[in-house]
Amino acid sequence: MDDEYNVTYIILSGHVEVQKYRYLYFLIMFTVYILIICCNFTIVCLIWIHRNLHEPMYIFIAALLINSVLFSTNIYPKLLIDFLSEKQIISYSACLFQFFLFYSLGGSEFLLLSAMAYDRYVSICKPLQYPTIMRKTTVGIFLGLAWLVPACQIAVPAILSADMKLCSLFLNGIVCNNSIYNLYCVSSTTRSIFGVVALTNIALFPLLFILFTYTRILIISYRSCKTVRKKAAQTCLPHLLVLFSFSCLCAYDVIIVRLGSEFKKTARLIMTLQVILYHPLFNPIIYGLKMKEISKHLKRLFIRQQY
């Protein structure tokens, strides 16, 4: 549908009975969004305030939580507007931008988890060299690459999609993800190649690196004393839980896109909500409960507020 300014609008057809339950949807999603912001930034502020948390591991955790808030902010405001609107539509340019941020920030999560895995490997397997290897400059480079590399990789297929001819204006979803590829009249080989390269560089390679790193940590910890094994378990388990959670949600996204037409509309909506609801809240809960130093500061914060 083109208006007088010749702007192409995409109809988001993945909503289920939004006219009937719009206020319930809005209330739930608004509450979750506020919880995501509060939970994530509470831990980020604790890491910022307390000097004993100014270590690479906690800096990477703070970056991961900020990334979760950015990921949610890319989705929730538009979703909340859609719930209160008569028509759930988005301009094609805005859809491409949401697509870009969706996968760019998703790739950043994998690279940040890779940096955290490397940090734990050096800390546990090469403790004497840790201060030399994990300097502030190194941490800064890792953080910069974690956000810059996925942005550059995803920008290419997003830009290539800008001039593609659309044969359908009905997007089978509530957010702009890979489902937009189903709107095009013809597939682009160049865009597909860049998409595969991006997926390999920002998801597959980091995942393999993380698994290799933690395998090495497990082997070395098993051969070491009880203290080393305990340290490895305390610091690595939360990262592995987050990795497992995020990998499952990425698998959800692929299943939704590739097999979306075979799922009922309600099932497809529930799977999409898993991607945008679950993980941004899972991260702060895991790190708040499982990371000893963060948990200690959280207990002090809440006990102080009670008095």
From TrEMBL:
Family matches, as SUPFAM superfamilies: Family A G protein-coupled receptor-like (SSF81321)
Cellular component terms (Gene Ontology): plasma membrane
Residues covered by the G-protein coupled receptors family 1 profile domain: 39-287
Transmembrane segments: 23-49, 56-76, 96-118, 139-160, 193-215, 236-257, 269-289
Pfam families: 7tm_4
Annotated membrane topology: Multi-pass membrane protein
Protein's name according to its UniProt entry: Olfactory receptor
Natural source organism: Seriola lalandi dorsalis
